[in-house]
Amino acid sequence: MWIQMICPAPPGSLYGNRITALRWARILRRLGHRLTLAQRYDREPCDLLVALHARRSADSALAFRKLHPDKPLLVILTGTDVYRDIHRSRKAQRALEAATRLVVLQPLAIEELDPRLRPKARVIYQSAPRTGGRSPRRSDTFDVCLLGHLRYVKDPFRAAYAARLLPASSRIRILHAGQAMDEAMARRAHSEMHGSTQRSTQHTPRYTWLGEIPRAQARRLIRSSRLMVLSSRMEGGANVISEALVDHTPVLASRIPGSVGLLGKGYPGYFPVGDTAALARLLRRAESDARFYAKLKTWCIRLAPRFHPSREQAAWERLLREV
Question: How far apart are CA 307 and CA 292, in angstroms?
Fold first, then answer.
């Protein structure tokens, strides 16, 4: 089959949706399909259109549906789609109506859809291979990583704020990898390390911003850390959770549907969105309470097979057979 995938993020973009599109392109090619990846649909012939992002790719999805009313159209819903845009944007809603199937990244996202549309929805968990090589964990520090660009929706400094509340005896070190998406965020990150803004003279000596690092290095950072923090205000189903779980690195996550849908409702490592004190308590408990840390780790190890690459490929194969 000849497939065209639409991803609004430009080539070379560091946004997660672009990384997801590239991984899916590799999967579809391994399944024997021809595939082109573009930012918008330009009437190029194809047998199937895959539109990543219901609102931002709505024009492409609707143009394809108008030109090819009988061909299959898949619309992939991102976090901003599921938890904001499909409730506000008429164009996004029209794209959902036009789709043959809707793809979400975790099962709780289906609850956000109009009941009429839910039968069209399919869950595809984002996968990750285990990190190869050796990534030993330090014994003199209790390293906690964050991987995410510095954007408001990621609440990127919540762990830094929580680190300020830890006792002097704590060995926790916060290591944050991700690009600042504007100068203001870069200044904030530097101020957290060095303390130099008018907002606050208090800095976080436990916090280190690593900036953008290569993907392979980011994966080694996850594997060598004792914990990963995901403090986002909104996620569709973050692939960084998959990456942590397959490497058996426990996660402390803000209690948002996008993370609960991946980790489960009973997972013991949640904190309320934006609650610095609650995150600090979890960090300290994970460091000092071996039974609690083991409980987090056992839960994550149990979930890890769900995110194996073979399962993601099989899910795509089933979906393409359907359409």
Answer: 24
187 in Cβ contact with 195 (< 8 Å): no
Domains held by the chain: number: 2
d(CA 32, CA 141): 47
- Spatial distance between the Cα atoms of 242 and 262, rounded to a whole number of angstroms: 8
CB under 8 Å, gap of 24 or more: what pairs does 87-94 form?
A: 87/112, 89/54, 89/55, 89/58, 91/55, 91/58, 91/59, 91/62, 92/54, 92/55, 92/58, 94/58, 94/62
Q: Is position 316 within any domain?
A: yes
Considering the domain boundaries, does residue 136 fall inside one? no
* 159 & 195 share domain: yes
- pLDDT tens digits, 144-191: 999 989 999 999 999 999 999 999 999 999 999 999 988 999 999 998
Query: Model's pTM, two decimal places?
Result: 0.91
d(CA 237, CA 10): 21
Kindly give, in sequence order, each residue whose CB lies less than 8 Å from that of residue 288, ignoring residues fewer than 6 positions away. Answer: none
